[in-house]
Write a structure and sequence with these properties.
Bound molecules: NADP nicotinamide-adenine-dinucleotide phosphate
Shape: globular
Distance between the termini: 37 Å
CATH architecture of the largest domain: 3-Layer(aba) Sandwich
Order of helices and strands: HEHEHEHEEHEEHEHEHEHEEHEHH
Helix content: 25-40%
Number of strands: 13
Radius of gyration: 21 Å
């Protein structure tokens, strides 16, 4: 008994904070075995292990979730290795979400529309990609503001991966109105064009268009403010110390709900400005939590222990 315990403790000590491709190539498992993880570059900051390991432990699933520092040119090999090592799946974070779909055997409809995957699942030896950002965002908005996207007039800042997932979710949930504001207007325009069919139906709205692409500039945003309820920051502006708010504080008004997808322990500049203006505002931790819970549900086909995961995150 003692010998067994000592051996298992030694094995546990071998578990690393961050694994690499070299580790995957010469895989030495630990106890409980690592069968899930997150691939990223950088990846040290990822909060996913703390959420997923809490869920695994709570559900008495004898496996661990680890961080993997995988460089862009290593992604193909790393994905083949998790197939061989019979992982349940992995999460993908920056910069792998875009390249991954092209390296997998199949993808769900959201991945095809958004162009990025953040979850991979091994099913009968085949690797399938999913994107849980949009659905995670919808659950987060419901939880934080007690509203459904279908009731809202939405302004999304950004037109990258996160913005595409959020905009598609708003379209699928039949949001009252969607405005996409981006630094490069042509990217916002392209996204709006892709979603046009969803907004073809009649809705009573007054003089403003149901679907619009605008530049991320003060004059354009000022014009929109009175005709939106929810503003989402899906740009990285606010991530670094000293960053400004992605839209000027003077534009914010008390009727607004603000969702900043950036997750940080401190208030982001946008959240601070919004609260000061008397609006409701929250950062992206709840989206991170819910996209993680959805990943767990995809991997294990069972409900995620959301309260346990939330507690681990906070
Ligand atoms: P991405 O694909 O690189 O897109 C970035 C977007 O931000 C683009 O539209 C880009 O505009 C815009 N942008 C970048 N720098 C800007 C600047 N200085 N001023 C104005 N616009 C700027 O990135 P992403 O993967 O969508 O991630 C965006 C944010 O979402 C990140 O902060 C990430 O942390 C967050 N996120 C959060 C969660 C969560 O669970 N909470 C999940 C996913 C992502 P251009 O097109 O003009 O370059």
């Amino acid at each position: 008994m003692t010998t067994k315990k000592t051996r298992s403790e030694t094995k546990k000590k071998l578990a690393k904070d961050v694994y690499t491709l070299a580790d995957l190539k010469d895989w030495r498992d630990v106890d409980p075995p690592i069968r899930l993880g997150v691939f990223g570059d950088p990846v040290e900051h990822s909060l996913s292990p703390q959420i997923q390991n809490a869920a695994l432990k709570h559900c008495k699933i004898e496996m661990q979730y680890a961080r993997f520092h995988i460089l862009p040119h290593e992604l193909r090999e790393a994905i083949e290795l998790i197939r061989k090592l019979e992982f349940i799946g992995v999460n993908l974070t920056i910069p792998h979400k875009i390249a991954a779909p092209g390296l997998l055997d199949s993808s769900d409809d959201d991945v095809k529309r958004i162009g990025t995957a953040n979850v991979v699942k091994r099913e009968d030896g085949r690797l399938r990609g999913f994107n849980t950002d949009g659905r995670g965002f919808a659950r987060a908005v419901r939880e934080e503001f007690s509203v459904d996207l279908r009731d809202l007039r939405v302004l999304v800042l950004g037109a990258g991966g996160a913005a595409r997932a959020i905009a598609l979710q708003c379209a699928k949930e039949n949001s009252e109105r969607l405005v996409i504001a981006n630094r490069s207007l042509e990217k916002a325009q392209k996204l709006a064009d892709e979603l046009r069919d969803f907004f073809a139906g009649p809705k009573v709205l007054g003089p403003v268009a149901r679907l619009q692409a605008v530049p991320l500039e003060e004059a354009a945003i000022r014009f929109q403010i009175a005709n939106v309820d929810l503003i989402i920051n899906a740009t990285p502006v606010g991530l670094n110390r000293g960053d400004p708010s992605p839209i000027p504080a003077r534009l914010l008004a008390p009727h607004l709900m603000i969702y900043d997808t950036i997750y940080s322990a401190e208030r982001t500049p946008l959240v601070s400005a919004a609260l000061e203006a008397g609006a409701r505002a929250i950062n992206g931790l709840s989206m991170l939590l819910h996209q993680g819970a959805l990943a767990f549900e995809i991997w294990f086909q069972r409900e995620a222990p959301i309260d346990v995961m939330r507690k681990a995150l906070l």
